Amino acid sequence: MTNPSPNPRDPNRHVPAILLIALGLFAVYLLRYVLLPFVIAGALALVAVPAVRGMHERWHWPRWIGALLIFCGYALVFALVGWGIARFALPQAAAVLQDLPRILHRFLSTLFRGETTTLIGIRLDASELSQRLSTWLPSQGAAPDPLLSAAGIGVAVLMGGILTLVLLLYFLIEAPRLSRGAVWLTPPAQRERVLNVARRSRPVLYRYVVGILVVVSYTIFATWIFARLGLHLPQAELLAVAVGLLEMIPVAGPALSVAMIALIAIEQITFGMIIGVSVFAIFLRLSIDQFIGPIVLGKATHLPPPLIIFAFLAGGAIYGALGVLIAIPVLAVGKIVIEEMRAEPTLPNLKESYLREQNLPKV
User: Fold this and answer.
1) What is the C-alpha to C-alpha distance for residues 158 and 152, in angstroms, rounded to an integer?
2) Would you kindly state where each structural domain of the chain is located, as residue ranges?
3) How many CA atoms lie within 13 A of 108 on its CB side?
4) Given this model, what pLDDT does residue 199 score?
5) Helix (H) or strand (E) holding 32
6) What mean pLDDT, rounded, does the chain reach?
7) What are the start-end ranges of the E strands in 82-194?
8) Which of 45, 155, 228, 280 is the most exposed place for a label (fewest CB within 10 A)?
9) CB-count exposure of residue 74 (10 Å: 0-12, 13-18, 19+)
10) Is a pLDDT exceeding 70 seen at residue 163?
11) C-alpha torsion 256→136→87→211, nearest 10
């Protein structure tokens, strides 16, 4: 006996699904900071799962051995990155903050072409404005008890890092079982369509995560080479990390990167340095947009630029750091979902082919 299907002419047939989606989005909003380690661990596991599956199929190793090897590789990379940040970036950041009034004064006096200037009838003084900015900027992150605030942030980062590593190992080992559970939760009537969405979404998400890692790593390395060997800046490591992270933000990120390079390099500003920074900014942009990005991303995120910018802004405003991380993947998967909802299935064996590719049992 089969369950009666809803009347296609019923105008209220989509109300339960819409309410369920709205409830899910509200729950995600409430748990946005709790979900951050899960998202990071899931993204890293998505990149490494093919390697774990390859070791299992080629050498017939137990899955947990391949997962443990990949996990140790990740842990080694994280340890090296953490050591580099603690050894180089953090001391440089402290030095920049301590020297912030002088850097701002030099920047403003260069911008004003002197100590003072007049803007729309208002007289601006470089010394006074630099002192106000150097006092105002640190106060934006200040708390009534800075020591307690710093301790709380440190404990939260430490616990979040440990949780991310634990989740990463679990996802690497249990990826097939988690996939089977997700398939089992899918309503039977929609299972084939959902499997098709999963089949199309997986390479998009994989290429996006890999692409972001490659682009950020390339940006950090290129900026460090330019800042250390070209400008001989003592803050080269801090600048490279900041520019690499800003690369994940479309449009505004590259502009902020150039402004940051100019601000830190203001001590040795010359006509040649201005030309060098301009050439480097153009080279970095062209190399990422025309070479690195198309190779590693492919067609994974071929979406209209205004839509991408809106997704970043909306994701950051609603979900904070988590929203910035998942804005583009959610947008890309949402596009696939809409395409599948509007299209009729054309492959009768789509479900079986997907299960075969993922080594999942038929349901």
Assistant:
1) 10
2) 33-136+151-185, 190-357
3) 21
4) 85
5) helix 32-59
6) 76
7) 116-119, 122-125
8) 155
9) buried
10) yes
11) -30
